[in-house]
Design a protein that fits this description.
The protein is α+β, with helices and mostly antiparallel strands. The protein is built from 7 helices and 8 strands. The protein has 2 domains: 64 residues, Orthogonal Bundle (Arc Repressor Mutant, subunit A); 140 residues, Chorismate lyase-like (Chorismate lyase).
Amino acid sequence: MKLRIDHKSQVPLHIQAEELLRKLIESPEYIDGKLLPNEVELSKDLNISRTTLRQSINKLVYDGLLIRKKGVGTRVVESKSLSSKSKNWMSFSQEMSARGIPIRNFELHVSWVMPEKRIASFFGIKEDKKILKLVRLRGRPEGPFVYFESYFHPIVRLTGDEDYKAPLYEMLEKSHGIIAMISKEEISALLADEFIAAKLETNIGSPILFRKRFVYDIDERPIEYNLGYYKADSFVYTVESRRE
């Protein structure tokens, strides 16, 4: 497919490049997860800078259409691994990487716990069945802005020895063959209590964005129950809808 950028158009170059790449990855040649040409070749074909091209690619990574792996390249997400209802959700690490935001882990704890009733009910298990709990306090290098608690269904077969510093859903797929397919979310506002205020280094009573995420695998089985507490003055939650 011949890719052409109109340098005389008033449409920004990175927007034109994004639309061209969308058409490219929908072609039969790329629809099954093929690697894209490297950035040097693509930027030369489009007659744009690599910085401009990278901006377009990052947007498609954010939308969940491309996956970038260091030392391998950028490939198209296979059609079978995309949800027809939502195609732009990713793990926190992937979201921040796509936006070019450096992230630091301030705390990372793994433990085995008895699930609370609401969590056991979501997973459809008994309350006396231990499950893995992952706690992460994350943010920019200068300070934390989000506190996560994740609980995992026993079917994921986590041991606790996995690399939890890696993007979570990439790790689950690579290490355990679990594909996170569907994410359902509930978003509300809270005031920071003593515990959350201490974690996020803010004042008690400060506004907090509270997000519950319910994650299901490719067979629509529940695999993760996630709670996220975000500093409201450090994070904006954006939802993008595209009319087709």
